[in-house]
């Protein structure tokens, strides 16, 4: 069975944008692949190095979110990056053979530094994070990595490094220690937040998977709509409305068409429309809350799942590192 690897930074609880994008995809991939999913806490530190106090709490939060949407620790290996020290050993070895120019030309290096100009990212860790990603992937000899188009350069870098390592230490560019990881192209849809911008924790416009019913409605009620609907009697255009964008994801076709017709003819008001969306969202979120409440009743369960998953991951990583040390011809006792 082909192996898939993917990780998520523990930077906060997960919202419905994550559910419709990466997370929903992860759940589906479990059907076809042997999946390794990890909490990327070292990666979070590459930009949040001065906010590390939240990492432990957010690690627990996102694993609860993972379990509530259906990631199954019986089928997939769920683990913590910083619990597998072999990632850092491989990173050191890869850093010896990776030209600096390869890292400096990764597009996200400049882009993220510009987006986060308020933060000093002129650090060794930030420049090297695509190399740590490479180590994360190849240490499990993953065949596939689910990525969006914007992350393709990272995967191309990983393949270049694999070819360089294999050729340098085994004389065989294609069949050495590491297989070349391939992409599983998965475009995350744009999911609007309550202010119409892309849903994001940093914009404070997100509906979280763990939000209570009351909280979901409090967020939906004032959500921005088509600005043309100033009065209840003004017709609107669903195509210009972020509320309708959410209907597209959550509301069955017949009900969605009824809402669109009601909007265009001013047959329904925006609050009626949001009530429909609320009901449909609740159909998805309520089972997640129930699962989460079950997890809350077993306070040690997340720790136990991560610990067992990390043991499994470590075994795999250790096997790879043994081959790596042999290939590099390090002295062995
Ligand atoms: S009726 Fe619904 S789709 Fe139309 S503007 Fe109001 S919230 Fe948006």
Number of strands: 5
Terminal Cα separation, in Å? Answer: 35 Å
| Quaternary class | single chain
Q: List low-confidence stretches.
A: none
Number of helices: 14
Q: Could you tell me the mean pLDDT?
A: 95
Portion of residues in beta strands equals 5-15%
Q: Name the hetero compounds present.
A: iron/sulfur cluster
Helix content: 40-55%
Output the strand order for the largest sheet: 1-2-3
Choose one word for the global shape. elongated
The structural class is mainly alpha
The helix/strand order is EHEHHEHHHHHEHEHHHHH
Largest sheet: 3 strands, parallel
What is Rg? 23 Å
Summarize the structure in short.
The protein is mainly α and 333 residues long. It has helices spanning 16-29, 41-48, 55-69, 86-97, 100-104, 107-115, 124-127, 129-138, 152-170, 213-220, 242-250, 253-264, 270-296, 301-328, and strands at residues 3-8, 34-39, 77-80, 144-147, 182-185. Helix 10 (213-220) runs antiparallel to helix 13 (270-296).
Annotation keywords:
333 residues, mainly alpha, three-stranded parallel β-sheet, two-stranded parallel ribbon, 14 helices, 5 strands, 54% helix, binds iron/sulfur cluster
């Amino acid at each position: 069975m082909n192996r898939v690897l993917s990780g998520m930074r523990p930077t906060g609880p997960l919202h419905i944008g994550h559910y419709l994008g990466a997370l929903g995809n992860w759940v589906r991939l479990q059907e076809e692949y042997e999946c390794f999913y990890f909490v990327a806490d070292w990666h979070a530190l590459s930009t949040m190095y001065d906010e590390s106090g939240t990492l432990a709490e957010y690690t627990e939060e996102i694993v609860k979110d993972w379990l509530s949407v259906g990631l199954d620790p019986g089928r997939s290996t769920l683990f913590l990056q910083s619990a597998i020290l072999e990632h850092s050993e491989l990173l050191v070895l890869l850093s010896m053979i990776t030209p600096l120019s390869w890292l400096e030309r990764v597009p996200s290096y400049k882009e993220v530094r510009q987006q986060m100009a308020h933060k000093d990212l002129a650090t060794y860790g930030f420049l090297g994070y695509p190399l740590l990603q490479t180590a994360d992937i190849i240490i499990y000899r993953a065949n596939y990595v689910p990525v969006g188009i914007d992350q393709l350069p990272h995967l191309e870098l990983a393949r270049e490094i694999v070819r360089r390592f294999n050729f340098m230490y085994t004389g065989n560019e294609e069949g050495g220690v590491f297989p070349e990881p391939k992409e599983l192209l998965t475009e995350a849809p744009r999911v609007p937040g309550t202010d119409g911008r892309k849903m994001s924790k940093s914009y404070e416009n997100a509906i979280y998977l763990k939000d209570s019913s009351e909280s979901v409605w409090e967020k939906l009620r004032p959500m921005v709509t088509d600005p043309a609907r100033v009065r209840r009697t003004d017709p609107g255009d669903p195509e210009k409305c972020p509320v309708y964008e959410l209907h597209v994801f959550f509301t069955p076709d017949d009900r969605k068409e009824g809402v669109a017709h009601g909007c265009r003819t001013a047959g329904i008001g925006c609050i009626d429309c949001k009530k429909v969306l609320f009901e449909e969202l609740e159909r998805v979120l309520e089972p997640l809350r129930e699962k989460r409440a079950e997890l809350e009743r077993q306070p040690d369960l997340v720790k136990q799942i991560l610990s067992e998953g990390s043991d499994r991951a470590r075994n795999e990583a250790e096997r790879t590192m043994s081959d790596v040390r042999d290939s590099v011809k390090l002295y062995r006792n």
